[in-house]
UniProtKB/TrEMBL annotation:
InterPro entries: FA58C, Galactose-bd-like_sf, GH, Glycosyl_Hydrolase_84, Hex-like_dom2, HEX_bac_N, O-GlcNAcase_cat. Keywords: Glycosidase, Hydrolase. The lineage of its organism: Bacteria, Bacillati, Actinomycetota, Actinomycetes, Kitasatosporales. Residues 183-466 form the GH84 domain. Gene3D superfamilies: Chitobiase/beta-hexosaminidase domain 2-like, Galactose-binding domain-like, Glycosidases, Hyaluronidase post-catalytic domain-like. This is Beta-N-acetylglucosaminidase domain-containing protein. Residues 648-788 form the F5/8 type C domain.
Amino acid sequence: MLEALPAIAVADTAMTDAAITDAAEHAAASPLPPVSPTPQTLAREGRDAVVTGRVLVVADEGTDAGARDRLVRELKAHGADRVDIVAPEEVPGAAAGLLTVRLGQATRPDIAAALGDTRTPARDEGYALRVEGARPGAEVTLGGEDAAGQFYAVQTLRQLFVRAGGKAWRVAGVRVSDFPSMPLRGTIEGFYGQPWTHAERLDQMDFYGDVKANTYIYAPKDDPYHRGKWRAPYPADKLTELGELVRRATANHVRFTFAVSPGESICYSDPADRKALKAKLQALYDLGTRAFSVPLDDISYTRWNCEGDREAFGDPGREAAARAQVDLLNDVQRDFVATHEGAQPLQMVPTEYGDLTDTAYKKTLRDTLDPAVEVMWTGTAVVPPKITNEEAGKASELFGRKVFVWDNYPVNDFGNTSGRLLLAPYDKREAGLSAHLSGIVANPMNQPYASKVAVFGAADFTWNDGAYDARRNWPRAMAYLAGGDREATEALLVFGDLQHLAPTFGATPWQPQAPELARRVTEFWTSWDDGDRAAAVASLRAYARAVERAPATIRGGAVEEGFTVDAADWLDGTELWGKAMVRMLDALTERRTGDKEASDRLLAESNELQRQARAVRVDPPRNSWGKVRPKVGDGVLDSFLVQADVRLRLWDTGGGGENLALEGTASASSVEQNLDRLAPRHVNDGLTGTRWASGYSDDEWVQVELTAPATVAAVTVAWESACAREYTVQTSPDGANWTTASTQRPDACGNDVVRLTATDAVRYVRVRGVERKTTWGYSIHEMGVYGAPASR
């Protein structure tokens, strides 16, 4: 029952009419607060509406309960001491002095009248919102095309509260007409490695509600009951958890989509297996699940799991596999989904999910798969560097329907992501994709809270791809994590820049590492070499201090605690790297002013801090890559420190600090299986995604012949997981006579910096293995040689 409103006097308002009018008129010309996802239309509309001490919410039985509850919560968090809920026909005439908020179906007469010419889009999940701050009778009206639309109207409203001075709040005067560009928006928990906990999933459902994401696909690869033990029913305690998760998702207007992946062992033609699959789906339907998926990715489709399938579908192969899969999927769609009230169309992931090549497999799906079934596609690669309208249009043609994109960002469960948090914004997806796609779900990281940065962007893009701007979205995502705290938001942006690199399965990342730091470092060396050294240090030192201080600020209480837990080891490393950078810049300053003793002391302190930073390990690891060094601004921050170190060591030598290996010629003792992609030229190509790999013996080496003799102060070695237990760095003037300059015994595979005593000029620099750490050979992504040509 709706609570009746007691007698109300105008004197119950929190501010006088004069104060309210002054505040509202002053605010009318102020910029609107940012709203994410970006609405289709949002425009300033007159005065702001001041939140009074008591607020009247007009709702009826058609008002969505989740939307109403969130509305009341937001009003109380923004200045309302009391919120009274009444039916439309029970609004008292004495309520003129209070803020009135109307919430419900857009067709409700009082809402339609209050919205006036603010149109409610006739689209699923669409809504209209109007704020009218005129006095007396300030009103906020939220009308939804459906229940989800009402809920999303409230999610927009919560971002329109602005401070009115002191503890007072107002609602920005706006009119909004809004709807999602894509019908399916959210995430797929589809990564390998440690699945999320139950508490983390519950939090994610609330987060998806906030960002208007309506889809969560439960598909963790390492849940045995999802894949390996798909026939077995879930234990009772797990079913209880899943039931709670379904209810939390539903409250946030998120479709909990249950995925079961039987492809590793199913006999497609066996009625018993089909019965087991439907029983698994039925158990989740009984919990309230209304969306289902049967992923058939990452399986062998050129062999059968039973002889019965050979008899039913012929010899194994692409076309036969497609016919078997279609036969199963059509059965599930027509015999299970279509016969269960409220069930959404079945989703599936094809075995060929990541390219645009037409095959017998795709043709069979295109021609025979039930048109209602949603087909997922990952783009032109497992981790696509971009998705264009042309590519999406082609994929839709190949599968005979709009495709549903499984976007493998920001997932970090593959080798090239080892040691990385992926905090770059969602990007490189072309505006206009909503014309070709039924939706996008992002595959997040094993770290759920850190994943919110990219998912926040994906939700914004899928809601309104035509207006999406990654550069504008990224600070909004950080502000969300920081609860709107400006200092914490800035710290997150600094930290996120150091975790910006986004790898693919290939050699070239699709987003660069530390673009802001890289820009500042480039400016630093330009100013330094131009002679403006004091200004160069002052500018970069301020940013280095921001790097050093960011972890403490992030841990200061404003940022979601879950994020600080997810990022703990990276925050530890960032603080140390930031301190090392500050000390290095101070060493440059002291040397510039002539105090070599102080400079040497500060250089030693920086090197010790770098050693401590390299000793940090992700522990305990959530990812399958294990206890590895957390990567922090690698290739930018560490490269700057090496270059600065070399400049100090070669102070009396002209130039210095350059990576001379980039212009050199690499050769090696051997190449693993004579594979060209592992050739020695990859060890000095400047790409962190390529590598050289040796044959399988201890006494193997790779070397770089420099373009001219040089004084070498440091060598860097970026190891792949097949690294050395012990190795030496050797130098030679002629490639025949070698001197062992350093022997190294690293405690882990990572990025090593080997400092040399720069004396005589050399032409060749070699990394020579003494003992392998694995049964493989040696594998190095990049080898750097830092110094100055002897001719200078």
